[in-house]
Amino acid sequence: MNDATGLAEALLGLDGFRVLAVSETLDEVCVTVETTADVVGCPRCGVRALAKERKRVDIRDLPCFGRPARLIWMKRRWRCADLDCDAKSWTEGSPQVPARALLTVRAGAEATRQVGELALPVAVVAKELGVCWWTVMDAVVRHGTPLVDDPARVDYVRALGIDETSFLSATRDHHTIYATGLVDLDGRILIDMIEGNAAADLRRWCGTQDPLWLEAVEVVATDLAESYRRGIAEHLDHTVRVAEPFHVVRAANRCVDKVRRRVQNETLGHRGRKADPLYRIRKLLLSGSERLDERGHERMLLGLRRGDPHDELLGAWLAKESVRDIYLTERVGEARVLLRKAIVGCKDDEVAEIRSLGETLERWQSEILNHHRTGASNGPTEGLNLCVKRIKRSGRGFSCFEHYRLRVLLHAGGVTWPRRPSPPRIRTRAPYFNA
Ligand SMILES: [Zn+2]
After folding, report:
1. N or C: which terminus of the chain carries fewer CB neighbours within 10 A?
2. CA-atom Rg of the chain in angstroms
3. How far is the CA of 217 from the centre of ligand 1 (A)?
4. Residue 30 and residue 22 in contact, taking contact as beta carbons nearer than 8 Å
5. pLDDT on residue 246
6. What gap in Å lies between CA 312 and CA 260, rounded to an integer?
7. Residue 4 · residue 63 · CB < 8 Å
8. Ligand 1 centroid from CA 89, angstroms
9. Which residues of 44-57 are buried (b: 16+ CB within 10 A; e: fewer)?
C-alpha cells in the first residue's frame, strides 16, 4: 500500500474500519473512522437498508506511539427500505467495540491484563488510557470474569490450603473484615476467595462445589482457626487435616507480640514508640534464633533486660522457639516429643498468653503432626499471601468484595491470558554502552 489512507489503516489495525482522517493535539491522536460496510441488509427482512444520518461516537483505543488515542467513529444509522417492516431503524455495531463501551475490545483486554496480571492500580491504567476509573473497572469485569470462570483454570486438587487474609482493615464503623483464600497447594494457585472467615462462609462455599471435586481432595491445610475446622467438617471430612508450619509458627509469633504489647504498656504506660527498648527489638523477637547473628542476639537480650522486668516476654520468646523446634525434624516420632515438650512448657507458664498458646497447640496436636505424616510442604500460601497483598496495596482500600475477588484471582489464580504478540528482538548495536 502506498496511499495515506492505506498506511493509516495498517497502523490502526482494526478490521472492518476505514480511516477518514488523522489529527493530533499535544495530548492525543484522534483517528476518525467509519465501518467498511456500505451495503447492509435489514436484520428482520433482509431488504437492502437505506443510510440515515451519522452519529459521532468517541472511543478510547490503545495508546499510539506513546500518546493516548481517540477513535472518532462516525457511526451510521440505517433504515429499512420497507416502510411496513418492524425493524424501522438501527445503529451499526462492531465486534471490536462493545455496545455503549468507551474502550475498544483490545484496549479493554490490555487494561485487564495490566490490572490483573501486572497488578497495576486501576487509577493508573485509567489515567494512562485517558478514561475514568469506572471505565477501566468495567472493562476488567467484562474481560476478566470469563478468564476467572474458565473451568479449565481449576483442576482437581489434591492438597487444599485454606487461609485467612484481611479484606478491609478496621475503621470507625466496622471491625476488620476478613476474606478466606482457597489455594491449590500443589499447583500454587489461588482457587477462590470468599468473603468472611466464619465456619458458615466456608461451608456455603463447599456446598456449591462439585461433590466429585470435593472427594478428590486428600489433604486440607488450614491455620489454627476453629471456624475453619468446623467449616470443612461437613464436606471435607474424608481428608487429612494439616496445620501448616507457617500458621503454627505465626500463632507463636502472635503470642510473642501480644506479651510484648502488654508488657510495654504495663511498664511504660503507652504503646510502643521508636526509642522504647521492646519496640526496638520487635522484629528480632520474631526471627528464628538460628537466623540471628551474635550482634542480633546481644541486642535482643539487652532490650529484654531493659524492658522486660519479670521475664514474661523472654518466656514467650522461649515458647515460640520451642514451637519452631517442632520443625527441625522431619520424623513424626521426634516431632511428637518436641510438640509435647512445647505444650507442657507453655501450659505450665504463669503468663496467660503463653498458657493460651499451649492450649491451642494441644487442640491442634494431630493436625500439627499430620504435617510430618503427610510431608505436605509449607510455602505456597505464604507466597500467595504476598500476591494478595500486592493487589491490596494497588487498590488502596477496596469497598466492593466482588471487584477485590476478581482482581486477586486474575493476579494469583493461574489465569490463562490470551496470547499476545511476541515480536522478534531487535538487538542492540552497542552492547558495551548499555552494560
Ligand atoms: Zn426490514
Report:
1. C
2. 30
3. 57
4. yes
5. 84
6. 8
7. no
8. 9
9. eeeeebeeeeeeee
Q: 99 alpha carbon to ligand 1 midpoint, in Å?
A: 21
pLDDT along the chain (435 residues), means of 10: 78 91 92 90 88 92 91 93 86 90 94 94 92 94 95 90 82 83 87 91 92 92 87 89 88 93 87 85 87 89 89 92 90 93 92 93 93 71 71 74 92 90 85 63
Q: How far is the CA of 78 from the centre of ligand 1 (A)?
A: 10
**What spacing in Å lies between the alpha carbon of 82 and ligand 1's midpoint?**
6
Spacing, Cα 50 to ligand 1 middle (Å): 10
Cell numbers linked to 41:
441488509
Q: Count CA atoms within 13 Å of residue 232 on its CB side.
A: 26
User: Rounded to two decimals, what is the model's pTM?
Assistant: 0.82
CA of 87 to the centre of ligand 1 (A): 5
- Spacing, Cα 41 to ligand 1 middle (Å): 8
pLDDT at 392: 78
Q: Determine phi and psi for 33, rounding to 5 degrees.
A: -130, 160
User: Which pLDDT belongs to residue 421?
Assistant: 85
